[in-house]
Amino acid sequence: MNVLLVDDDYFVVTALEKKIDWTSLRIDGVYTANNVAQAREIIKQQEIHVLISDIEMPQGSGLELLAWIREEKYNVQTIFLTNYADFNYAQKAIELQSFEYFLKPIEFDKLMLIIQKAVAKANEQRHAAKAQQEGYFWQKNQSKIVEHFWRKLASCSSSVPMKPAAIANAVQEQHLDYGMTDLFQPLLLNLFPYDGSMGKEEKDLFDFALLNVLGELFRHPAFAVETMLEHSPRNWIAVLKWTQPPDARLIEELCASFIHQANRALKCDACCNVAPAGELGGIGSILKQLLDMNETVTKSRNRILHVSRDRLTEDAAYAPPDLALLDELLNHNEPAAFLNETSRYMRMMPSTSALSRFRLDIVQLVYAFLKNKGIPVHQLYTGKTHDQLLMQSLNSLEDMEEYLRYLVNTAMQYRHGAAEPTSVVEAVKQFIQSHYGRDLTRNALAETVYLHPDYLARLFKKETGVSLGSYVIQTRISAAKLLLETSRHSVYAIASKVGYDNYSYFSKLFKQVVGCTPNEYKKVKQ
User: Fold this and answer.
1) Assuming Cys at both sites, which of 131, 252, 383, 452 could form a disulfide with 379, CB separation 3.0 to 4.6 Å?
2) β-strands 183-193, 50-54 pairing
3) Per its UniProt record, what CDD domains does this chain match (predicted)?
């Protein structure tokens, strides 16, 4: 398989040649061109399967090159690299059926995945005619039938597991090559992507990378992987069919390897839930046990749980922690000791229901602490950050620890801010002066000092005599005046630098505050 790199920047082409591991992508030939004319000649002479091209080039654009490729009926997967986040470019690229549109600077890890997907697509198209003759499309359809069979089994097992007779009927109706005594083993994989990682921001690429990792790891002559399906967000079920007697040690090693690869390659934590192997006739009950354990057992990240030993037979009685001690730690301003004590206590909780009751106790304790200080609790814990941390808090012990850190640190910061309003206002003023080019909304400023936006606005006006919005405007206009006096930037560029993308609005504000337009001010001062 061959790839063609097209960019008028010699250094970009060289970087792509050197930094991409073409051998691992099974690319045999890497050709390069610095303009559209050179690229056309190479495509005429060589069979090119993947094209990676810049869009803006002096002697013709990448979009024109792709249009020519489509006219000439060349079967090429095209990836565009560009400095311009221009909707018109993106729209044209979509119309020409480009494979991907990727903004520079280049993130080589993500580009590797995109190229891998393009190679897979090119391979699929290359072999389409031959594959049709050999029954490829039948096989592909069969894999969908198998996935549907297991998805339905898992869905039913969430409530009432399918009986052996119903499973046998489904196997017969869908013409699956299964016997009722075949041995299967389901695994449930929980994934916890790190903040800022691909799993948080680009789910499609993350899922593709995940399936690649699973496909590489779960290969063994002792079993076949029947299907891998996402049962719920970031919870994947893998079903193994044993061709040899089940090997518990092998499964343990594979799960440990997967957790290591998830940490390293996928930039996420993972938890593996292992069900026992069983005959197809009883697989519904096994799936139910696995799904029940996933819902009821408290999970800790990067661990392997086994249905046979970790599943709860009945909900353990909940005993609250030493609430008097925790209240004392809060009142003595010892948040670190408070969090250490709650973390120690949580580690003894076997069930998510106990963890939920524990969370309720801690929330009520912190709310009571704030209420006694005269702090309006109902205004404090609102917004996207709180809601997201609360929603995720029962996913794992680590998620609960993160939520409690937010809960307690916000309370202590709020208490500190209420006790020393001057220091809080000074901190906000310094933040505005250092970041006047950002989007300085009330909510964003309030988050920097752990205060509710309404409370911060009242506090700021009381301490300074100026509203928060007016202070932001004054700071930005002062910065703009200095730049107009001392720099060679255009007025449009200065407006953007001080936080105003709308030039007309900036000019109007400037005239209201200074008494003349930015252009008039610049002429007088320079």
Assistant:
1) 452
2) unpaired
3) REC_YesN-like
